[in-house]
Amino acid sequence: QVRLVESGGGLVQAGGSLRLSCVASGRTFNNPGMDWFRQAPGKEREFVAAISGSGGSTYYADPVKGRITISRDNAKNTMYLQMNRLKPEDTAVYYCATDPPTSGGIRSWGQGTQVTVSS
Question: What is the number of other CB atoms lying within 10 angstroms of the CB of residue 111?
Fold first, then answer.
């Protein structure tokens, strides 16, 4: 059983920055690969970024490449998404999740944190 709790969302002007955090807990959490997703109203949930269990490998979706950095601190069971030069189209609920291939085939989701970017 894995519990994921996101935080750090809020309202920011275009061009601004936010850092999202995801804190994991639970006896079955073994520092698997982790992902960030986002979902805007009326849109499908889309992949944003991924990080390997060790933090040594990262991958970013095209719309956010160059503007975000995914990282993790395994000593704190925490993952981060640093978001810079935000755009109105980045407005969405952001979710962290375990990556199924490295988490026993199960994707665990956080509750999400709202990011709103004003123009």
Answer: 12
